[in-house]
Automatic annotation (TrEMBL):
A Pfam family annotated for this UniProt entry: FYVE
Domain RUN: 45-177
Upper taxonomic lineage: Eukaryota, Metazoa, Chordata, Craniata, Vertebrata
Name of the protein this chain belongs to: RUN and FYVE domain containing 2
An MF annotation (GO) of this entry: zinc ion binding
Coiled coil: 210-315, 379-490
Residue intervals of the FYVE-type domain: 533-591
Amino acid sequence: MWVCFLPSPALRDPMAMERANLLNMAKLSIKGLIESALSFGRTLDSDYPPLQQFFVVMEHCLKHGLRVKKSFLGYNKSLWGPLEMVEKLCPEAGEIAASVRDLPGLKTPLGRARAWLRLALMQKRLADYLRLLITRKDLLSDFYENSAVMVEEEGAVIVGLLVGLNVIDANLCVKGEDLDTQVSHPPPPPPTHTHFTAILDQKNYVEELNRQLNSSVHGLQGRVDNLEKSNSKLIEELAIAKNNIIKLQEENHQLRNENTIILMKAQQQLEVTQVDVDVELDTYKKSRQGLDEMYNEARKQLREECQLRQDVENELVVQVSMKQEMDLAMKLLEKDIHEKQDTLIGLRHQLDEVKAINVEMYSKMQTSDDGMKQKNDMITRLEEKTNQITATMKQLEQRLQEVDRDRWTAEDGTRKFKQDFVNKADSLQKQIAQREKQRLQLETDLKIEKEWQQTLQNNLERERDIVAQLSAEAQQINGLKKEFHRLQDENCQLTGICDEQEHALEELGCKLSEYFRLSYNQIFQGGQIWLKDKDANICKLCEKEFSISRRKHHCRNCGEIFCNACSDNELPLPASPKPVRVCDTCHALLLQRCSSNAT
């Protein structure tokens, strides 16, 4: 019968509840592993499901309360640190540690810790090594919190349970296994995520406990059925025994009647013989020889009758003893039936209690399912917010493109205006130079030839009119210069606004890329590490420099940064069932893998 260890309501401390849940899961997994291994009857391998479940539970127990160490790559929780200390406490463990370090396929501390657990189990020294470790509280305080399982009393209980695993023979292949999964450890999650993981752990524990209770219920039902069948068989045997007793009693009665009849006949025969003896005695005197013969015959008949009587009395004694034995067997059968009925009643009470516990576990599982539904609703709301953010990003990109187009048109206009202004200024300067030459020539002509004075004066007036027009045009040119300076100022303001918007967009893009990276890491818990936006200035593939028109895009497969032209492909990945952006290299590689898998 399985013993149910339910968390008490008095344990309000979440760490105490987690320790109790881990202890219960360790008890169930170790007990199930020992029972299944003994029934399995041969050496266990790496693919044995109860053994895989045991390693997962042991990994959770060793990870509980593990201190988070901050390094250059982020936050890190490593099981290899405390397990590596066993080599200093026990020199015999140095062989395992050296074997783990020499394994070529292990690259992470978590993989080394998993390999160490498997080698210690194969060596049948896992309980001894962990007992040495938990006795040194001063060394464990460097790796675990004060409320961790390995520091509290639950650790000693788990180590005591591990002693039973010494009866198991295991042959585990460490080289071929992928022990480096789930290498990256994100920063410590918020309290809501901790509560969520605690709920998931409790749900898994409740499901495991429900499965064990169902198996125990099925076993109890089988035992009840077997007891009912045996009870029915015993009742049938009791009825048969009663019938046999009745038959034996009838036979005994018949034998008694026959015995009385035989006795009566014997007495009658004795009386007849006595009469015959008297007659023969009377006739003895007449004939001694005939009397002796008859006397001998009578004596023989008497002996025969006495022997027959003795046989009948012996048979009667045997029948009486058989009756006593049958009465004793009847009493024993009735006592056995009463005891089995009592055990049947007790088993039914236990079955009712197990059913009540099963109903309570089912209600708790429903509450955990409701919590899961609430978390799923929160996830959908977060996805809606991300969709809104992407929509606003698209709007900002459209506005930025419009601003770029306006700026380009303004630059083209200013460039054309500059060219026209330069051309007009050159033409005006050329005209002024020509006019000056003509004026000098006219003055020299005026000095030389006075008769042409009138005509020269007329020409001079015309030239004055032209000069007035030129001065008006010069004033217009000055106004155009002022307009040009004003347009330059506006252009500077627009470029400043564009720079500010570009900087804001870059910051928003950085935040969004960081948000998407954290979202992908938290939701999918796997995949490649994204390259930061500030670490990439050129495209990984075409090596073109990024600008406000050539945006940065992450490849969801390899995590590198590419431009839009080199990453405009979409494919579904194992971490995301929906099609996501991938680069041209990953796109070709994934298509090649799909085609090879299809063939």
